[in-house]
Amino acid sequence: xxxxxxxxxxLVLAGCGTINTVFKADEVTSNTLARWQSHCDSVPRIYSGAxxxxxxxxxxxxxxxxxYGQPSAGLMRVDMLFSGVADTVVLPYTLYRQNRDxxxxxxxxx
Length: 110
Description:
Oligomer: single chain
Strand content: under 5%
Distance between the termini: 40 Å
């Protein structure tokens, strides 16, 4: 069981909203919002992982499904919980980045 949990950890973290918004380039988040056709024009860096999940849940119908690159709504709700915890851990860093760089805008080109 412990071995299975260790093997699953990278898969879970790869889809984590906090990992995608805090530790990857801003273009990843921008393009993700555009690809999902989200109604969010930007994602603030503070609690960005949970907000990215929220934006995914409020994307255009038909563009947010269980297809490749677009996890199911159930998984996004679970990820929102874990992202909220992770966002709290990185809060000092995201406060600094929000002050220095501002929010992450949605890409206009997919």
